Amino acid sequence: MATTSTSNVACDIANIELADLGKKRIEWANQSMKVLQIIRKDFIKNQPLKGFRISACLHVTAETANLMITLRDGGAEAVLCASNPLSTQDDVAASLVRDYGIPVYAIKGEDNDTYYSHIMAALDHKPHITMDDGADLVTIALTKRKDALEHVIAGTEETTTGVIRLRAMAKDGMLKYPIIAVNDADTKHMFDNRYGTGQSTIDGIVRATNFLLAGAKFVVAGYGWCGRGLASRARGLGAEVIVTEIDPTKAIEAVMDGYRVMSMHEAAQLGDVFCTVTGNKSVLRKEHFELMKDGAIISNSGHFNVEIDIPALEKLSSSKRTTRTFVDEYSLKDGRKINLLGEGRLINLASAEGHPPSVMDMSFADQALSLDYLVKHHKTLEKSVFKVPEELDKRVAKLKLESMGVKIDKLTPEQEEYLAGWSEGT
C-alpha cells in the first residue's frame, strides 16, 4: 500500500490534501458525541488498550474517526479499512492519517479488488482484536488469511447482517474467537438502527434524487428496527407508506402502527420509491421489476447490495445510463425505466453522510466499552457471539441521558423490596 502522508503513516487513501476539511468534520461530529468524550477521558487516564493491535473494518466517517481516536488514546495501535466501497468520506480518511497518525485503507468508490486488498492490509496489522461491520474482515481472516488469526483474542461486530453471518459461523464451528455483537445492545439497535437509519436513509434518497416524498407511495421492505425508523420518517414527510414483511409478528405490528402491509408482489405495482432494509438477498427481484411503474426508484439501506437483484434488472434492460450522481437509469425492453440508487449499496452512506453523530455516540460508546471488556474477560469466553453485557449497555444509556441534561427517578427502598418479593398482593 502507498504511503501518502509526510508523517510516513501507512495508508491507501484518495487525497491527503483533503485533510483540512476532514479535520473540521471530525471536530464537528465530536461536539455531538458526549458519551464517547467521557469514555475517551477515562481511556486516556487508564490506558485499557495499551499494547493491543486493533484492525477495524468500519464505515470511514467522521463519527468512526472519533471512535478510532478514542481507541488510539486508550493505548491501542489501530488501523482502519472501509466496510463498504461507497461509504468512505475521503476527507475524513485523509485527516485520520495526517492529523491523528492512524493508518487508513479506504477510498470512496473503490472497486471490488481494491476493497478486499484494503481488508488484507488491515489484517497485515496482525491484530489482537477485530472490529467489523458486516463480517467481511472476519470472513477473510477465517478463509483466506488464517495466518492473521495467530494473535487474535476477540472481536466486535457492529451491524445486523454481520451478526447473522457470525452466528452462522459459530453454529458451523467456524468461529475461532469470541465476538461481541454490539448491534444487539439496546442502546445500539433501538436508537442507531431506528433513528439513525431512518433519518439518514431518507437523507440519502432525497439527496440522490431531489424527489418529493409527500404524496408518494413509499415501500419499506422489512419492519425490523431499521424498517420502523425508515417508515416513520417517510410518513413524517407525507409519504403513503407500504410495508412488506415475512414475519407475521412484525407485519401485524406494522398494521397496528398504521401502515398498509402487503406482499411485495402487490407493492411492486403501487410503489414510487422502494427501500430494502432486511439483511437478506433478492428482496427486489425479476418478478417485481416486471410489475413496477415507469420511473420507479429503488434503493437499499441494508449492509450488502444483494438485497436488490441487480443482475436480474440488467437482464431485463436494453440500456443503462447515469442520470444523476448515484442514480442509474435502467431502460427496460418494454420502454419502462427503473432508477437504481447508489449501485444498490447503503444509500444513507453512498449519497449522504450516514447516521448523525449524536446517535453514533451510543453505538461507538458500546464499541469502546466492549473492547475494554474483551481485553479483561476474553479468556473466560467461548468461541461464540455474545451480547454487550447489560451493565455496559445501561451505563451508555445513563451517560447519554446525563449528557442531555435529563434526570430520571430511582426506586425507593420500599419499591425495591416490593419488586423483590412475592407475598404482597391485592
UniProtKB/TrEMBL annotation:
<feature type="binding site">
    <location>
        <position position="193"/>
    </location>
    <ligand>
        <name>NAD(+)</name>
    </ligand>
</feature>
<dbReference type="GO" id="GO:0004013">
    <property type="term" value="F:adenosylhomocysteinase activity"/>
</dbReference>
<feature type="domain" description="S-adenosyl-L-homocysteine hydrolase NAD binding">
    <location>
        <begin position="193"/>
        <end position="354"/>
    </location>
</feature>
<dbReference type="InterPro" id="IPR020082">
    <property type="entry name" value="S-Ado-L-homoCys_hydrolase_CS"/>
</dbReference>
<feature type="binding site">
    <location>
        <begin position="222"/>
        <end position="227"/>
    </location>
    <ligand>
        <name>NAD(+)</name>
    </ligand>
</feature>
<feature type="binding site">
    <location>
        <begin position="301"/>
        <end position="303"/>
    </location>
    <ligand>
        <name>NAD(+)</name>
    </ligand>
</feature>
<feature type="binding site">
    <location>
        <position position="245"/>
    </location>
    <ligand>
        <name>NAD(+)</name>
    </ligand>
</feature>
<dbReference type="InterPro" id="IPR036291">
    <property type="entry name" value="NAD(P)-bd_dom_sf"/>
</dbReference>
<feature type="binding site">
    <location>
        <position position="188"/>
    </location>
    <ligand>
        <name>substrate</name>
    </ligand>
</feature>
<feature type="binding site">
    <location>
        <begin position="224"/>
        <end position="229"/>
    </location>
    <ligand>
        <name>NAD(+)</name>
    </ligand>
</feature>
<keyword id="KW-0554">One-carbon metabolism</keyword>
<comment type="similarity">
    <text>Belongs to the adenosylhomocysteinase family.</text>
</comment>
<keyword id="KW-0520">NAD</keyword>
<feature type="binding site">
    <location>
        <position position="355"/>
    </location>
    <ligand>
        <name>NAD(+)</name>
    </ligand>
</feature>
<feature type="binding site">
    <location>
        <position position="61"/>
    </location>
    <ligand>
        <name>substrate</name>
    </ligand>
</feature>
<dbReference type="Pfam" id="PF05221">
    <property type="entry name" value="AdoHcyase"/>
</dbReference>
<keyword id="KW-0963">Cytoplasm</keyword>
<protein>
    <recommendedName>
        <fullName>Adenosylhomocysteinase</fullName>
        <ecNumber>3.13.2.1</ecNumber>
    </recommendedName>
</protein>
<dbReference type="InterPro" id="IPR042172">
    <property type="entry name" value="Adenosylhomocyst_ase-like_sf"/>
</dbReference>
<comment type="function">
    <text>May play a key role in the regulation of the intracellular concentration of adenosylhomocysteine.</text>
</comment>
<keyword id="KW-0378">Hydrolase</keyword>
<feature type="binding site">
    <location>
        <position position="192"/>
    </location>
    <ligand>
        <name>substrate</name>
    </ligand>
</feature>
<comment type="pathway">
    <text>Amino-acid biosynthesis; L-homocysteine biosynthesis; L-homocysteine from S-adenosyl-L-homocysteine: step 1/1.</text>
</comment>
<feature type="binding site">
    <location>
        <position position="280"/>
    </location>
    <ligand>
        <name>NAD(+)</name>
    </ligand>
</feature>
<dbReference type="GO" id="GO:0033353">
    <property type="term" value="P:S-adenosylmethionine cycle"/>
</dbReference>
<feature type="binding site">
    <location>
        <position position="133"/>
    </location>
    <ligand>
        <name>substrate</name>
    </ligand>
</feature>
<dbReference type="InterPro" id="IPR000043">
    <property type="entry name" value="Adenosylhomocysteinase-like"/>
</dbReference>
<dbReference type="GO" id="GO:0071269">
    <property type="term" value="P:L-homocysteine biosynthetic process"/>
</dbReference>
<dbReference type="GO" id="GO:0006730">
    <property type="term" value="P:one-carbon metabolic process"/>
</dbReference>
<feature type="binding site">
    <location>
        <position position="348"/>
    </location>
    <ligand>
        <name>NAD(+)</name>
    </ligand>
</feature>
<feature type="binding site">
    <location>
        <position position="158"/>
    </location>
    <ligand>
        <name>substrate</name>
    </ligand>
</feature>
<feature type="binding site">
    <location>
        <begin position="159"/>
        <end position="161"/>
    </location>
    <ligand>
        <name>NAD(+)</name>
    </ligand>
</feature>
<dbReference type="Pfam" id="PF00670">
    <property type="entry name" value="AdoHcyase_NAD"/>
</dbReference>
<dbReference type="GO" id="GO:0005829">
    <property type="term" value="C:cytosol"/>
</dbReference>
<dbReference type="InterPro" id="IPR015878">
    <property type="entry name" value="Ado_hCys_hydrolase_NAD-bd"/>
</dbReference>
